[in-house]
């Protein structure tokens, strides 16, 4: 039997085929901002260690217009990352069973959102108390 | 037997960074970006906060894990966008994250030892 | 009863002995409210163009043969209805990411080859003979794998997975979900053998959790969940190997 000739379609521009693909790429793109924010933090930690002069430069950059815009972008990126992360988290958790009671994906999702709220509140309270 | 791929190790770092970024990222950006409370970015205030070893350690670990999180996602997104697989690409991504993590750990160590 | 309405069906055509590139052909099909896209294709074949090629068998979403792209969505054409698209036209194409054999028929050989690699059957710890009696399992144990066992190999999840389209060696959603189905079965002891295939770049690590596979599954299987629940286990497996061998891994 001779092999059938088949036609293979190109994957070029595959994200144009469905909105879900573009949402996926947007979710992945948050990592670029998260990486840049990590570098910003590293710079801040180093500057603070070096002394008041270096810290003033960092602080001026953070509070400049581009610095504020970057923080707005970072807030959006971290929030979207957190929202999508917790939505997908139940998929990576092995199904748990407590006796006859099954821990559902919805429950894992809600628990994760609760942990997010708790951690955020704790951080803000600590900042309000400790940084004043 | 030899592991077939280093991917699980990078995925674990990616997952840890992603979890940490999701849990504390938005609040941390609010604190430093607003800033909250208003005097949070003062030199003395921040030095006082960083004097606590847990704060310094938490920030250092966050920086390192977020860099690995970013390196992993950026690498795979580049592949998704059609960038051909080349050996130097993961080396640049994960090498960069490793360098940044070492720097962060160094700075953290300096803070903790102070 | 009113006269049947007319809907335009635009089908991808490709006959390898005749065409160098696929093209689209428009057909005007009279339809009634209960007609599926599959019945529209059958009307074309019976009345308009007998050379239109497509696969189908059961007409009731059980056999998994009639999957195709309808207006860009991977669906079973037997449970997709023309009335939901009228008065717009319906564009019918073969499943994405598979080589086109002829018109709407794709070549599933790659999937079948990969399916065999994960040993999609029970591998008991000890062989039993009929005299030993049946394998016993509690309803709770059955719940652990029942969802994933509903897979009908229709390949819609492959057409929804860009990673399968981008990476030729990726095992893909259904194969990994079926591997998980047997791993999760209390009667099975083949986990270590399947781990060889699953814990690799072509296995669970080929998945970036786009998540569309679970959205398009007509049987409620959650391949994205099945794959990603295996990632922590696979990572632990790698760690265990590293500790045992004391060797570092090479990228």
Automatic annotation (TrEMBL), chain A:
Protein keywords: Cell membrane, Membrane, Transmembrane, Transmembrane helix
InterPro entries: Fumarate_red_C (IPR003510), SQR/QFR_C/D (IPR034804)
Regions that span the bilayer: 24-49, 69-86, 107-131
Regions annotated as coiled coil: none
Keyword Transmembrane helix tagged: yes
Pfam families in the record: Fumarate_red_C
GO CC, one annotated term: membrane
UniProt protein name: Fumarate reductase subunit C
Organism: Ectothiorhodospira mobilis
Automatic annotation (TrEMBL), chain B:
InterPro entries: Fumarate_red_D, SQR/QFR_C/D
Regions crossing the membrane: 9-34, 54-71, 92-113
One Pfam family matching this protein: Fumarate_red_D
Entry's Gene Ontology cellular component terms: membrane
UniProtKB keywords: Cell membrane, Membrane, Transmembrane, Transmembrane helix
SUPFAM superfamilies linked to this entry: Fumarate reductase respiratory complex transmembrane subunits
Source organism phylogeny: Bacteria, Pseudomonadati, Pseudomonadota, Gammaproteobacteria, Chromatiales
Protein name: Succinate dehydrogenase subunit D
Any GO BP: fumarate metabolic process
UniProtKB/TrEMBL annotation, chain C:
NCBIfam families in the cross-refs: dhsB, PRK05950.1, PRK12385.1
Assembly notes: Part of an enzyme complex containing three subunits: a flavoprotein (frdA), an iron-sulfur protein (frdB), and diheme cytochrome b (frdC).
Name this protein carries in UniProt: Succinate dehydrogenase iron-sulfur subunit
Keyword Oxidoreductase set for record: yes
Keyword Acetylation: no
Start and end residues of each 4Fe-4S ferredoxin-type domain: 142-171
Class of enzymatic activity (EC top level): oxidoreductase
């Amino acid at each position: 039997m001779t092999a059938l000739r088949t036609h293979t379609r190109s994957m070029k521009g595959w994200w144009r085929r469905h909105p879900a693909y573009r949402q996926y790429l947007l979710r992945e793109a948050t990592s670029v901002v998260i990486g840049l924010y990590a570098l910003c933090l590293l710079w801040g930690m180093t500057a603070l260690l070096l002394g008041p002069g270096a810290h003033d430069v960092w602080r001026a950059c953070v509070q400049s217009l581009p610095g504020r815009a970057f923080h707005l972008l970072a807030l959006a990126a971290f929030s979207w990352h957190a929202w999508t992360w917790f939505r997908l988290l139940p998929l990576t958790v092995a199904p748990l069973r407590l006796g006859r009671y099954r821990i559902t994906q919805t429950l894992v999702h809600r628990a994760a959102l609760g942990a997010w709220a708790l951690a955020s509140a704790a951080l803000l309270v600590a900042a309000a108390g400790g940084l004043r | 037997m030899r592991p077939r791929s280093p991917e699980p190790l990078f995925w674990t770092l990616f997952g840890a960074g992603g979890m940490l970024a999701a849990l504390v990222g938005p609040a941390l950006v609010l604190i430093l970006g607003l800033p909250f409370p208003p005097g949070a970015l003062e030199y003395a205030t921040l030095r006082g906060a960083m004097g606590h070893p847990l704060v310094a350690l938490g920030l250092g670990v966050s920086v390192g894990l977020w860099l690995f999180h970013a390196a992993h996602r950026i690498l795979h997104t580049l592949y998704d966008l059609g960038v051909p697989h080349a050996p130097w690409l993961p080396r640049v991504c994960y090498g960069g994250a490793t360098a940044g993590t070492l720097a962060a750990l160094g700075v953290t160590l300096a803070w903790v030892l102070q | 009863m009113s006269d049947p309405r007319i809907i335009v069906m635009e089908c991808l055509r490709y006959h390898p002995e005749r065409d160098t590139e696929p093209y689209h052909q428009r057909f005007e099909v009279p339809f009634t409210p209960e007609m599926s896209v599959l019945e529209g294709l059958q009307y074309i074949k019976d009345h308009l163009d007998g050379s239109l090629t497509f696969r189908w068998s059961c007409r009731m979403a059980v056999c998994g043969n009639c999957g195709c792209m309808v207006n860009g969505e991977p669906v079973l054409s037997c449970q997709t209805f023309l009335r939901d698209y009228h008065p717009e036209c319906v564009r019918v194409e073969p499943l994405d990411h598979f080589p086109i054999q002829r018109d709407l028929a794709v070549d599933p050989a790659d999937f079948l080859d990969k399916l065999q690699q994960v040993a999609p059957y029970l591998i008991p710890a000890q062989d039993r003979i009929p005299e030993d009696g049946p394998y016993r399992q509690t309803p709770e144990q059955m719940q652990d794998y029942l969802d994933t066992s509903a897979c009908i190999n229709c390949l819609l999840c492959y057409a929804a997975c860009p990673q399968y389209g981008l990476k030729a060696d990726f095992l893909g959603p259904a194969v990994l979900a079926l591997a998980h189905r047997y791993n999760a079965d209390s009667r099975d002891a083949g986990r270590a053998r399947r781990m060889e295939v699953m814990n690799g770049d072509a296995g669970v690590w080929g998945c970036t959790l786009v998540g569309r596979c679970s959205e398009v599954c007509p049987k409620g299987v959650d391949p994205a969940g099945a794959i990603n629940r295996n990632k922590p286990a696979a990572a632990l497996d790698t760690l265990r190997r590293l500790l045992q061998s004391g060797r570092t891994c090479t990228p």
